[in-house]
Specification:
By secondary structure, the chain is mostly helical. The protein is built from nine helices and no strands.
């Protein structure tokens, strides 16, 4: 297990370095073209530094044996696979070096995603009482359980919870699509592009990603629920911040962003509640044989 986890942690450290380099090449420094005080839709290159610090902190938690953090990182890898290529050509002109580093970061994120999923699957093949220990780089090698227990994990959420998560995700996707339509991103409407306010069509992609993540989640898959939780939190932040980043003044657009933020938060809370409830049921099942 440690042999599979160490490359993932190393690649996350590399990704942090690349994020930092991204920020510098994007002009995110005092006097640069993407620093505070520049036009808002360009002056957000500094967010790469936030990604770098957050990624390094997450790597530390994963190296110390946090399964939940590893699953959240899988969701972030999916986000970065979209965000890095898009920002490579959006939000203002960039040098060839900056575009290349953005692309390299996306490639590293893809490798991290594949490696993290593999490590997570290996971790689930050990006894449920020692999952966190299995992800710890300093822990001894775990004992693999019987094949019948090696099946992909399921939380066993109730039908009501499944319906709530599904419906809330549909509402979120509907609001995202409505935002794109209201902004004029329809056939024959405004120009679709990858720079500034021409990127509003990305809400359609967000809706597809949300619905795709909801499919395994409503079936009680642990990984699906946690990925949906991570994505919902990302969408919440994105919906809340983009009106300020793009200097949005349209009342309808502001209302749809607000509704989208609330819907994303509702999806995140529903997914978190399902994960928490499933964890309690697993604990009860593991304790019941001992009580007998």
């Amino acid at each position: 297990m440690a042999g599979a986890l160490r490359p993932v942690v190393f690649l996350m450290a590399l990704a942090s370095v690349l994020f930092f380099v991204d920020g510098i090449l994007d002009g995110a420094y005092p006097g640069g073209g993407s620093w505070f005080g520049e036009p808002l839709h360009y002056g957000i290159g500094w967010i790469s530094y936030v990604f770098a610090v957050a990624n390094a902190a997450i790597a530390v938690f994963i190296a110390r044996g946090s399964e939940g953090t590893l699953v959240a990182r899988i969701g972030l890898s999916l986000f970065f696979l979209i965000e890095r290529p898009v920002t490579a050509v959006a939000l203002g002109p960039k040098t060839s070096a900056a575009i290349a580093i953005h692309g390299a970061t996306a490639v590293v994120e893809l490798v991290i995603l594949l490696g993290a999923v593999r490590v997570w699957q290996l971790g689930r093949s050990v006894s449920s009482l020692g999952v966190d220990e299995a992800f710890d780089l300093d822990a001894p090698s775990p004992v693999v359980i019987d094949a019948e227990d090696d099946a992909p994990p399921s939380t066993g959420i109730g039908s009501r919870t499944s319906w709530v998560i599904g419906l809330l995700t549909l509402v979120l996707a509907g609001i995202l699509v409505a935002d794109g339509i209201a902004a004029g991103f329809i056939p024959g409407g405004r120009v679709w592009g990858l720079a500034g306010d021409q990127t509003g069509w990305l809400v359609y992609l967000f809706a597809i990603v949300a619905l795709s993540a909801a499919v395994p989640a409503v079936h009680g898959r642990t990984l699906g629920l946690r990925v949906l939780l991570a994505l919902a939190l990302i969408f919440f932040v994105e919906r809340a911040l983009t009106p300020f980043v793009l200097s949005l003044r349209d009342v309808t657009g502001l209302a749809l962003h607000l509704l989208g933020a609330f819907a994303a938060l509702a999806v995140a809370l529903a997914a978190a509640g399902a994960i928490r409830g499933a964890g309690g049921r697993r604990h009860e099942r593991s304790a019941s044989p001992q009580a007998a």
